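User: Can you predict the 3D structure for this chain?
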Amino acid sequence: MALARQQSVFTYSSSSGGQVYLFDVVVDGQLLVQARNFRTPYGLIDALTGLPRQVIQDVEDATEEVGVLVGGVQVESGNASFNGVTSVAVTIADGILNNTNYVVKLTTSDGVQLRITSKTTTGFNIEAASTYGTEEVPITVGYSVLVAAGQSSAYRGSLTFEFADGGAKSVTFASAMPTATYQVGLFPAGFYQAALTAKSKTGFTVTLGHGLADDGSTAVVAYEVFV
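Assistant: Here is the predicted structure, written as structure tokens:
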């Protein structure tokens, strides 16, 4: 008997205006990622007309997250607790990693921007721009450590944004991809947002969530492509 995975399903929840919405992010055997089965506790709904804008954004974020997750191999995951501190150290079991080319996906409940620093083969730091959480009400941050699955992540690098770039920079592949269904993981070096705003077989564009002042300041966003 030949065993072949036909699809994997990730179920997410989102909420807006007191209403909870559920949806599935489905990955087929060719790593095509699609969001389906939008519903509330009362039944299925039309994604085009029945979803609030914030939920639509959550759907896009979930689809991108799943694309990164299936494009790499998760070797470690867990939770870090912030209780009024700006940095939490995470330890990775010795021997799991042999280099620091892994990426870390973070999950927060409030959308606060965090960053990864001081990566080694046995750990890294999760940093906040200011004290995060309190002793009385600590905040839990989920993390997943991903490494490339075979040759699935042959493209990685970083973009340095300057004032003259107008908040957008493009990456052009040395040779065109066979399809534009690849996924891109973005990892800002600071406490700012970055988004994928265009994607084709020949490359993609990254846009910052804020403008840079004309004072020589820069912003760096690392990227990793999963195909």
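The chain has a mean pLDDT of 84. Helices lie at 47-50, 53-71.
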